[in-house]
Design brief:
Layout: H1 12-28, E1 33-36, H2 39-46, E2 61-65, E3 71-75, H3 79-85, E4 90-94, H4 104-112, E5 120-123, H5 135-144, E6 149-152, H6 154-161, H7 166-189, H8 196-209, E7 214-224, E8 243-253, E9 256-257, E10 260-266, H9 271-290, H10 297-310, E11 324-325, E12 332-335, E13 349-352, E14 355-359, E15 362-365, E16 368-373, E17 376-379, E18 389-391
Helix pairs in contact: 4-5, 7-8, 9-10
């Protein structure tokens, strides 16, 4: 079996294929261009990799026209990096920061010069999207640009990004391999009495030792015989007898995420908590077995919910969904929830994430990652043990 990680970045033909698909979709959706301003979408179409996105001072734009090549409209400080590290050949710049006109006039001129057929420009307006520029600048551009209507392109973008190429799949598979190795290494190192902060620090150290490029999401939560929440923390609470600790991680390889969790008990575990863990494990298994092309995201939720209901889940015992898409974002569409009729297709990467409140304020949550294939699904994470790991005193 090949154990070498996939090559970093993508060859030009990967970006050409993405742009070509986007241009077909623009024709179908009556748009003359789409404007991309968020790091993941900018990177998806250009390959631009920069930690400079951590600074909110300067906006960056990538204009993908209905015909022709993408155009970068970026601050002058970003032009050399875009020129040296991406396939983008047309780069328009302004001196930034310039709060009185941070690229607005320049972007106006670029969009106004594009060939017009529909007189509509798509933006990241819709679900799970943001426009990364001051809203006052966006309103000014929309009000002053001549003869162009701004419309929502979020669905168009997500329809492209939900289906991963083979090269993208390889990167998520590597991220999942790293995450699985990290949990195994951490399980050898974790010590009774560590605080949640110490746990998170040790987990990140294990992640980098196992090959992670970044560990931006490490959620560590715990509670006596179960936990009440899974998104805040870590805290200085020590892990002592009877506590159950939840670690949910999003590690990255070449910007692509894994996203899954594991549970640890300290000293001992109650029979009720162990039954709950077994129930969510079985619900996860039901989701894995149900996953295949042609079913909907709602169907994937229903397969898990059926097991949880049999285990005693009450009406409303739900955080809104039991899994989601995965890729350049930690969470992507679709959502495994009632009402999401997105049809699963080969190339989609999904999380399976059921949770059960087995007593008031006591929860167990479990998560795995899988790839939808032509005839079913491939588990990308290393499956958790059915019985919760107990850290001895």
């Amino acid at each position: 079996m090949n154990t070498q990680p996939p090559a970093r970045g993508f060859p030009v033909d990967e970006f050409e294929a993405r742009v070509a698909k986007a241009q077909v979709a623009m024709h179908q959706n009556a748009m003359d261009a789409i404007v991309l301003s968020t790091p993941q979408n900018f990177r998806y179409f250009s390959g631009f990799n920069s930690q400079f996105w951590e600074s909110p001072t300067r906006p960056f734009f990538l204009v993908v026209p209905r015909e022709g090549l993408p155009i970068a409209v970026v601050p002058s400080i970003g032009a050399p990096a875009v020129a040296e590290t991406t396939w983008i050949s047309q780069i328009e710049t302004w001196a930034a920061p310039c709060p009185e006109d941070d690229g607005v006039t320049l972007l106006d001129s670029v969009l106004s010069a594009l060939p017009r057929r529909f007189a509509k420009i798509g933006w990241e307006m819709g679900r799970e999207s943001v426009i990364r520029m001051p809203i006052v600048d966006f309103d000014r551009l929309r009000a002053t640009i001549s003869g162009l209507e701004f419309v929502d392109a979020a669905a168009l973008i997500w329809d492209l990004r939900m289906i991963k190429s083979a090269r993208e799949v390889a990167k998520v598979r590597e991220a999942c391999r790293i995450g699985s190795d990290t949990f195994d290494l951490f399980a050898q190192r974790v010590q009774y009495g560590w605080t949640e902060v110490e746990v998170a620090r040790a987990f990140r150290q294990a992640a980098f030792a196992c090959g992670a490029d970044n560990a931006p999401f490490v959620s560590v939560c715990s509670g006596d015989n179960g936990y009440g929440q899974i998104i805040a923390g870590p805290s200085d609470i020590a892990q002592t007898a009877g506590r159950i600790m939840f670690i949910d991680t999003g590690l990255q390889f070449d910007a692509y995420f894994c996203d899954f969790d594991r549970n640890f008990a300290f000293g001992h575990i109650s029979a009720a908590a162990q039954r709950a863990h077994a129930a969510v494990w079985q619900a996860t298994q039901a989701g894995i077995e149900a996953a295949r092309p042609g079913i909907t995201a709602e169907d994937l939720w229903a397969a898990q919910h059926k097991v949880l209901t049999a285990a005693g889940a009450k009406a409303g015992n739900d955080v809104g969904r039991s899994g989601h898409g995965l890729g350049l974002h930690l969470t992507e569409p679709p959502s495994n929830r009632p009402g999401d009729q997105t049809v699963l297709q080969p190339g989609m990467i999904m999380t399976i994430e059921p949770g059960l409140e087995f007593a008031p304020g006591k929860n167990i949550v479990h998560e795995e990652n899988l790839l939808i294939t032509a005839d079913g699904a491939e588990l990308l994470t290393r499956r958790a043990p059915e019985e919760m790991v107990v850290v001895e005193t």
